[in-house]
Design the sequence.
C-alpha cells in the first residue's frame, strides 16, 4: 500500500537481475505489497532475501493470495488470521503486510457467504402484506404480476398446465419468484440473515487483540473479525480500495445494511459523486431497506455515468418489486440496444413474460437465449417444459436429453425424462428413469413428486391398485400434497367410498385453494348425495379458480335451476 516507508536493503551478495530486458534494480524488503511478494521469487535460492523479509511474512501472504485466487477461502482466511495474530513488534515499519492481510481476509470472508443480489430475491410476508408501493389497486390487463391471468398472451389453462398459488403456470426452472405461493418457502422471520453463518454475534469474546493502526481492526477466533460499533467510517471512506472491501464485508457478511449505507454515502461524497460503483451500492442498500424509489434514482444516476449490465438488472428488479413489469421490460429492451445479445437481459425479458402468463412470447425469448448461449440450463428447461405442456413430449424429451448430456444429473431431470418417455410411448425407459429419480432424491419432497408421477403413469395404464399405492406413498413422504389427496379421492369415488372421498377432497381444497379440481370434484360429489348448498359453494370456488371451466359453469347452471324449482 502507498505510504510504506522505504528502508535501505541489508548488505548481501550481489544477485543476478530478473530475467528479461530491463533494469537490474533489486527491490528492498520494505516495499510491501504484491509486487514485493512476487519479486521475492525471482532471485536464485542462494540469493533470496533472509531475515527481515521472512519476518514480514511475504511468503505466507503470497500463499494466502494464491488460496484466494483458487477460491479456497477458508484456508486463505486462516492463513491471514495467523499473519494478523503475530505480535505487533514482529511487523516492521508501516505494517504493510498486516494491512494487506486484513484486506485479503475481509474479501475471503465476504466471498464465503456472497449471494448474488440480482437473482436471489424472494418476497417475504412483510413485503406481500404491508406493501405501500401499489400505484393502482385495479391494474389494467397485462400490466401487473399480481393478476397474471389478465395477460392477453393466451397462456395455457389450468386444465392443461398446473398453476401455483399466485396464479402463475408452473415453470420449467425453479426460481424464488416461482415459489412465492408455497407455504414451505415463506420466510420464517421478516428480517434475518440469509444463513446462520452470516448472523452477527451479539458480543465479542475476550482475547488477545492485535492493533493494526486502529482499534477497530480486531482479529479474534472467538469473536467478530471487525467490531462495527467502533469503526470510524469517515476514515475508511477516504481510502477507496479499503472502503470497497469493507463495504462488501459489512453488506454481505455482517448483513448490517445501515452501516453499509453510511459507509457508501461517505465514500461517494469523498469521490465527489463521480464513482458509479458507490451509487450502485447505495441503491442496493436502499432496495434492501424497502426504499425502492430512492434505489431507482441511484441506479439511474449510475447508468448515466457508466453503462453496466448489472445496473440494468438491478433497476429492472426495482420495477418488478413495484409491480411494473411493462417498465421493467422497457428497461431490458433499452439495455439490449446498448448491449446486443446479452444473455442476462434476454433471459430477464423471458422471465417477465412467463410470470405474466404470456408463454408464447417467453418461449421465443428463451430461444433467443439459446442462440447466444446453447448451454443455458434455464432456457433449455423452460422450453422443454413448454413443449411438454403443449402436448409435444417427443420434442420435450430432446431438450431434457440435452440437459443430461450437459452434465445435469439430478432427481428432477430423471423425473421429467420418465414423464416424457411415458407420454411419448417409449415405455422401455419410463420405469428406469423413475427408479433413477427415486435413487437421486435428496429429500422427502422430491421423493413425493416421483411417487405422484408414478401414480399418474399407473392411472394411464389402467392399474388403479398400483396408482392407489403410489398416491399413498406420496402422502407418506409429503403430508401436504394436495394433488395426491384429490386423486386418491377420485379413486375412492370409483370404489363407492363416498364419505372417504369427501374427506380427502376437503383436505385437498384446504391445502390448495388455488386448484379448481378439488372444488369441482367436491361439488359433483355433494350434488350426487343431495347436498346442493355445499355443492353450489364448492362450484363457485371452482369457478373462481378457473373461470373458463365449462363443466363448472354447467353445474352452476343446473344448481340454479334446482334452486329456482324449490
Sequence:
Amino acid at each position: 500500500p502507498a505510504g510504506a516507508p522505504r528502508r535501505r536493503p541489508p548488505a548481501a551478495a550481489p544477485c543476478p537481475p530478473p530475467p528479461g530486458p530491463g533494469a537490474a534494480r533489486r527491490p528492498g524488503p520494505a516495499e510491501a505489497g504484491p509486487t514485493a511478494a512476487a519479486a521475492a521469487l525471482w532471485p536464485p535460492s542462494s540469493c533470496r532475501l533472509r531475515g527481515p523479509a521472512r519476518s514480514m511474512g511475504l511468503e505466507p501472504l503470497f500463499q494466502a493470495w494464491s488460496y484466494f485466487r483458487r477460491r479456497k477461502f477458508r484456508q486463505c482466511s486462516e492463513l491471514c488470521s495467523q499473519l494478523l495474530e503475530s505480535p505487533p513488534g514482529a511487523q516492521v515499519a508501516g505494517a504493510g503486510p498486516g494491512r494487506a492481510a486484513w484486506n485479503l481476509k475481509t474479501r475471503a470472508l465476504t466471498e464465503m457467504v456472497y449471494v448474488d443480489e440480482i437473482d436471489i430475491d424472494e418476497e417475504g410476508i412483510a413485503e406481500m402484506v404491508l406493501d405501500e408501493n401499489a400505484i393502482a389497486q385495479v391494474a389494467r390487463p397485462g400490466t401487473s404480476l399480481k393478476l397474471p391471468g389478465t395477460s392477453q398472451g393466451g397462456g395455457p389453462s389450468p386444465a392443461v398446465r398446473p398453476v401455483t398459488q399466485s396464479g402463475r403456470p408452473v415453470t420449467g426452472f425453479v426460481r424464488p419468484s416461482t415459489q412465492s405461493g408455497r407455504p414451505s418457502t415463506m420466510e420464517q422471520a421478516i428480517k434475518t440473515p440469509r444463513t446462520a453463518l452470516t448472523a452477527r454475534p451479539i458480543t465479542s469474546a475476550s482475547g488477545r487483540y492485535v492493533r493494526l493502526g486502529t482499534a477497530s481492526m480486531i482479529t479474534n477466533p472467538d469473536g467478530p473479525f471487525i467490531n462495527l460499533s467502533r469503526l470510524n467510517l469517515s476514515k475508511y471512506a477516504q481510502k477507496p480500495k479499503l472502503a470497497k472491501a469493507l463495504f462488501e464485508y459489512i453488506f454481505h457478511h455482517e448483513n448490517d445494511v445501515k452501516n453499509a449505507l453510511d459507509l457508501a454515502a461517505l465514500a461517494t461524497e469523498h469521490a465527489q459523486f463521480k464513482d458509479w460503483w458507490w451509487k450502485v451500492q447505495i441503491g442496493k442498500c436502499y432496495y434492501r431497506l424497502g426504499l425502492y424509489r430512492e434505489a431507482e434514482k441511484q441506479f439511474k444516476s449510475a447508468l448515466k455515468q457508466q453503462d453496466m449490465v448489472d445496473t440494468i438488472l438491478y433497476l429492472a428488479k426495482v420495477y418488478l418489486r413495484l409491480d411494473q413489469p411493462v417498465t421493467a421490460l422497457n428497461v431490458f429492451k433499452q439495455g439490449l440496444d446498448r448491449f446486443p445479445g446479452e444473455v442476462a437481459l434476454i433471459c430477464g425479458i423471458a422471465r417477465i413474460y412467463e410470470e405474466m402468463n404470456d408463454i408464447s412470447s417467453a418461449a421465443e425469448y428463451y430461444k433467443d437465449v439459446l442462440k447466444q448461449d446453447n448451454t443455458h440450463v434455464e432456457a433449455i428447461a423452460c422450453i422443454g417444459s413448454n413443449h411438454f405442456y403443449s402436448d409435444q413430449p417427443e420434442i420435450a424429451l430432446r431438450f431434457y436429453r440435452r440437459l443430461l448430456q450437459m452434465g445435469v444429473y439430478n432427481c428432477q431431470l430423471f423425473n421429467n425424462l420418465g414423464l416424457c418417455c411415458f407420454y411419448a410411448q417409449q415405455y422401455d425407459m419410463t420405469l428406469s428413469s423413475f427408479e433413477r429419480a427415486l435413487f437421486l432424491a435428496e429429500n422427502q419432497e422430491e421423493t413425493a413428486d416421483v411417487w405422484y408421477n408414478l401414480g399418474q403413469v399407473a392411472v394411464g395404464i389402467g392399474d388403479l391398485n398400483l396408482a392407489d399405492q403410489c398416491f399413498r406413498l406420496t402422502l407418506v413422504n409429503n403430508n401436504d400434497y394436495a394433488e395426491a389427496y384429490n386423486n386418491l379421492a377420485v379413486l375412492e369415488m370409483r370404489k363407492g367410498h363416498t364419505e372417504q372421498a369427501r374427506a380427502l377432497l376437503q383436505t385437498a381444497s384446504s391445502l390448495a385453494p388455488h386448484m379448481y379440481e378439488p372444488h369441482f370434484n367436491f361439488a359433483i360429489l355433494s350434488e350426487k348425495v343431495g347436498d346442493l348448498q355445499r355443492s353450489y359453494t364448492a362450484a363457485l370456488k371452482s369457478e373462481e379458480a378457473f373461470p373458463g371451466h365449462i363443466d363448472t359453469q354447467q353445474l352452476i347452471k343446473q344448481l340454479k335451476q334446482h334452486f329456482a324449482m324449490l
